[in-house]
């Protein structure tokens, strides 16, 4: 396993500002991903382009992620991102949101093996782009992935990040680790593990259990404990006091940026409050609830002071 840590895309959380200040606060050999970018009205939204290629994205290694229903959409997205300088792109085949799966995107694409057989042909049109994938086991069946494995194996993907759940489970329920092992056995491409890694020992347990994984991808665990990647890279658990100090430093840089660029209290609160969404365990229930409830900036500041 290399020392790189894969930072999962989480819509509404890991946008350019969060990624920028996270890298600034903690450093490290992290590979970040944009939340999924989709085709809309025959193009890509300006805000998605800005998120990928704006100045905040210059300080970290970044791979844009695309979600698509067919090869026409994929072609359009690859062209638009290549024009913006992308040299690597991640294919989303795992999103469980019904709005996407209902249209055959994300985890809905796994079942469409007829369309998937065209993937290598589209990929070949973009020799300057190296592809990776992020997926689930399937939509509802735990071995649906077998249907598209021959196509995936015929492509040189840099890695496949696998979240060993099906879309029906959304983000809860048991991880199917036996099926993860099966997937690894069948995959010709390197496999990255993604799911429920919350502490350095969760990560070391997983890398010991699956010695052949190419890496780990951290999602909600990292959002709730932003030092997690740095701790994992250093192979040590930081004392809570240090974790909280660094988390507040990261938060303060991010909120200072929002104060400069956003207009008004409610915009500011709606951008900064998600910072804490997954941090209840880390900061304690009292502070977490007070932050959630705060309706004004002074109340928000008072709530922050409850973090001990
Ligand atoms: C609110 C939310 C938004 C997400 N947005 C994306 C996304 O845009 N692209 C993607 O591939 N995964 C997305 N995910 C899935 C995460 O990247 C990750 O695979 C999932 O949370 C499981 O990992 P974790 O247990 O470490 O959080 C999202 C998850 C959540 C909870």
The figure for the number of domains is 2
Which structural class do you get from the secondary structure elements?
Answer: alpha/beta
Give the total of beta strands: 11
Content of β-strand: 5-15%
Determine the CATH topology of the largest domain: TIM Barrel
What is the helix content?
40-55%
Low-confidence stretches: none
Shape: globular
Structure description:
The chain contains 17 helices and 11 strands. With 308 residues, the chain is of the alpha/beta class. It is globular, with a radius of gyration of 19 Å. The strands form 2 sheets. Strands 5-2-1-11-10-9-8-7-6 form a 9-stranded parallel beta sheet. Strands 3-4 form a two-stranded antiparallel sheet. Strand 1, helix 1 (16-26) and strand 2 form a beta-alpha-beta unit. Flavin mononucleotide binds at residues 8-12, 35-36, 65, 92, 94-95, 134, 163, 171, 194-197, 218-221.
Can you summarize this structure?
The chain is an alpha/beta fold.
Provide the fold topology.
Layout: E1 5-7, H1 16-26, E2 30-33, E3 39-40, E4 43-44, H2 46-53, E5 61-63, E6 65-66, H3 71-83, E7 88-93, H4 98-101, H5 107-110, H6 113-116, H7 119-124, E8 130-138, H8 149-153, E9 160-166, H9 177-186, E10 191-194, H10 200-209, E11 215-218, H11 220-224, H12 228-234, H13 240-261, H14 265-272, H15 280-283, H16 285-293, H17 297-304
Parallel strand pairs: 1-2, 1-11, 2-5, 6-7, 7-8, 8-9, 9-10, 10-11
Antiparallel strand pairs: 3-4
Quick tags:
alpha/beta, 308 residues, 9-stranded parallel β-sheet, binds flavin mononucleotide, 17 helices, 11 strands, globular, two-stranded antiparallel sheet, TIM Barrel
């Amino acid at each position: 396993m290399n020392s790189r840590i894969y930072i999962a895309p989480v819509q509404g959380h890991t946008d350019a500002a969060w990624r920028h200040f996270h890298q600034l606060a903690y450093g490290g050999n992290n590979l970040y991903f944009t939340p999924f970018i989709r085709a809309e009205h025959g193009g890509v939204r300006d805000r998605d382009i800005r998120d990928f290629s704006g100045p905040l994205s210059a300080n970290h290694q970044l791979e844009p992620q695309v979600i698509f229903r067919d090869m026409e959409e994929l072609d359009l997205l690859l062209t638009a991102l290549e024009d913006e300088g992308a040299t690597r792109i991640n294919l989303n085949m795992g999103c469980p949101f019904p709005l996407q799966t209902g249209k055959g995107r994300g985890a809905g694409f796994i079942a469409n093996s007829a369309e998937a057989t065209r993937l290598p042909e589209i990929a070949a049109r973009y020799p300057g782009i190296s592809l990776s994938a992020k997926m689930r086991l399937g939509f509802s069946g735990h071995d649906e992935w077998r249907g598209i494995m021959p196509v995936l194996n015929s492509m040189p993907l840099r890695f496949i990040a696998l979240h060993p759940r099906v879309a029906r489970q959304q983000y809860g329920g048991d991880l199917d680790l036996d099926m993860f092992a099966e997937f690894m056995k069948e995959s010709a491409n390197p496999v990255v593990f993604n799911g429920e890694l919350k502490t350095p020992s969760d990560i070391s347990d997983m890398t010991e259990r699956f010695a052949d994984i190419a890496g780990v991808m951290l999602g909600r665990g990292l959002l709730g404990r932003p030092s997690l990647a740095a701790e994992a890279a250093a192979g040590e658990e930081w004392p809570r006091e240090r974790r909280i100090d660094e988390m507040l430093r990261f938060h303060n840089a991010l909120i200072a940026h929002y104060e400069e660029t956003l207009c008004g209290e409610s915009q500011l609160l709606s951008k900064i409050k998600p910072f804490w969404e997954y941090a209840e365990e880390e900061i304690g229930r009292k502070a977490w609830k007070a932050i959630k409830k705060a309706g004004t900036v002074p109340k928000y500041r008072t709530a922050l002071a409850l973090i001990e």
